[in-house]
Amino acid sequence: MQIFTEGSGTPLVLVPRLEGRWEFMRAAVDELARGFRVLTYSLAGEPASGVALDRSSGLDNYVSQIRNALDEQRIDRAVICGVSFGGIAAVRFAAVHPDRVSALILVSTPGPVWHLSPRHRLYARLPWIFGPFFVAETPWRLRQEMAAAFPRLRGRLTFALAQLRTLTRAPISLTRMAERARMISPLDLTAECARITAPTLVITGERHLDHIVPVDGTSEYARLIPGARRAVLEHTGHQGVMTRPDAFAAIVRGFVENQRHAAA
């Protein structure tokens, strides 16, 4: 398993989004590394991950990656931070390995009972045909969020060019993305939520700006996980980890430090 590490201090595992490549969160990794020893990686099945996907294991492929990352780095317990799709794996890991989770952070994660819309279900079934439609509509769905995060056109263009550069270095597969979406669509994580004992923070963007994953669905984790808290990353929707990595890292640091003081 290929693991990228940066920083020192409290260990934190950052689980990637649906794209499957950690490189799209590089700015967040750099910011988090100011206060944490960050471990991240590409998702199982990605050529850069070094881990084959076992289709019979479903979501547990990604649960095993979290455990293996801790084992390979000889870390007993860590903050587990899952972003979007990665939050689904983080929830299950926290439920089945409570002794290895010092804190759980879920960022814009699809709700405990989440389903593909009929249109996206079609995209996911035939990604090689409908993938271009999904790609083409994405800028339109993100237009309000980008304007909120980057009020000036120059900022939006700079961000878009940086993403394109990342895409050339870390190409994504619409087929693998579709397979992951199909994998989590039938899941119900309600029971897992009730078993989580780690201090939990649920981070969302603003309700009117996230047109990828409904904020109300993500907020269900704060209701179902005992003692969970909520935070809103302002001026963002679903892309806040990438558009406002400094503010995201500040929220994470503040939560973990507060938990440490409370425990002391």
Report on the architecture of this protein.
The chain is of the alpha/beta class. It has one domain: Rossmann fold (3-Layer(aba) Sandwich), CATH 3.40.50. It is built from eleven helices and seven strands. It has helices at 26-32, 60-72, 85-96, 118-125, 127-149, 153-169, 174-184, 190-195, 215-224, 240-243, 245-263, and strands spanning 4-6, 10-15, 36-40, 78-83, 101-107, 200-204, 229-232. A seven-stranded mixed β-sheet has the order 1-3-2-4-5-6-7, sandwiched between helices. Helix 1 (26-32) links the parallel strand 2 (10-15) and strand 3. Helix 4 packs across helix 5. The protein starts with a strand and ends with a helix.
Summarize the structure.
By secondary structure, this protein is of the alpha/beta class. The chain has eleven helices and seven strands.
Radius of gyration, whole Å: 17 Å
What is the strand content?
5-15%
| Low-confidence runs | none
The total number of structural domains is 1
Coarse structural class = alpha/beta
Give the CA-based shape.
globular
Helical residue percent band: 40-55%
Question: Could you give the distance between the termini?
Answer: 35 Å
What is the CATH architecture assignment? 3-Layer(aba) Sandwich
What is the count of β-strands?
7
Q: Can you identify the CATH superfamily?
A: Alpha/Beta hydrolase fold, catalytic domain
* Alpha plus pi helix count: 11
Query: In which order are the strands of the major sheet placed?
Result: 1-3-2-4-5-6-7
Oligomer state equals single chain
Note the run of SSEs as H and E. EEHEHEHEHHHHHEHEHH
| CATH topology group | Rossmann fold
Give the CATH class: Alpha Beta
Task: Sketch the major β-sheet.
Answer: 7 strands, mixed
Q: Please, what is the average pLDDT?
A: 93
